[in-house]
Queue: 2 jobs
Job 1
Amino acid sequence: MYIDRIVVSATCRGLGLGRLIYSRIYELARQTGSVQVCAEMDLNPPNNASLDFHRKAGFIQLGTRILESGKQVSMQTRFLPCELEKS
């Protein structure tokens, strides 16, 4: 599953909304059979808050790319834990 963009207003940052949104995204990803969630974050110019949030959430960088606009982004993914079926 690919997340294109999530924006939380400056006045609401730090309240756990991002973690709540991502928690729901992980749930939806599992329901659709996805095994990972992917996103990209700005490196140049840097979006340090997003990079830090995703690092803490367990995302790892797969690579970087430069967009036509000249912006450089980090392509990242987080594998979802497997849930064992109960017998």
Job 2
Amino acid sequence: MRSRPAAGGGRWVDVDPARVARWVEGFADRHGPSTCTPQEYGLLLTAPDGATAELHAPPGVPGAELYAPPGVPGAELYAPPGVPAAELHAPPGVPGAADLDGFLAAVSRPRRIGLLLARKGAVAVGIAAGAKLVVSKVDTRYVQGRTAAGGWSQQRFARRRDNQAKAAVADAVEVTVRLLLPEVPTLAALVCGGDRRAVDAVLADRRLAPLSVLRAERLLAVPEPRHAVLLAAIPAARAVHVLVRDPDPDSPVKP
């Protein structure tokens, strides 16, 4: 799990789908039995002491799959293959238990997602089936950095850098078209990472419009794309983002 400060207070915690059930149990141990409320982003846990946890579903999880429909007593119909329903079931008597069951089952279900990581002169494209990278390609091109020279030399270097950057984008587009475009019908989402402008430049190609429709809001913070970076991007793309806000120490503890 990774934790980082959140704008406006609290902290973000990235939790692997397989560990969400245990994380929820730990939250209840620390703050008391929580109520579960369905939200557009996923699920909101509210503890008796005022602590809250927003569980944001990872890209590619349809909202319709997040919650058990009325009348279903447990997670038996929602547990992914090989995962006992008992591992997904919320404690009896907890308000919103059925919602929690459905959320846990939905985020645990393996999906195929596309990955597009781009920075100046480098792109890494792949497809992840669950936690496994099944298709990948990394491409790099030299793009000259900025120069301190002035006058004519600066203009010449700027033109050269611009041409190199355009060539790098063109290469990245072709890699993406070749690897991801034919797989669009099989992909639940496209998760991008790196430099937003570089990613936008790749997806601006009209041929990639069907892929752009699948683009998730999540933008992964990654270094220069390499095969190892692409592998590390998979758990980040599949993680459940949890926004945790602790109770106000000045507020009275609720009974």
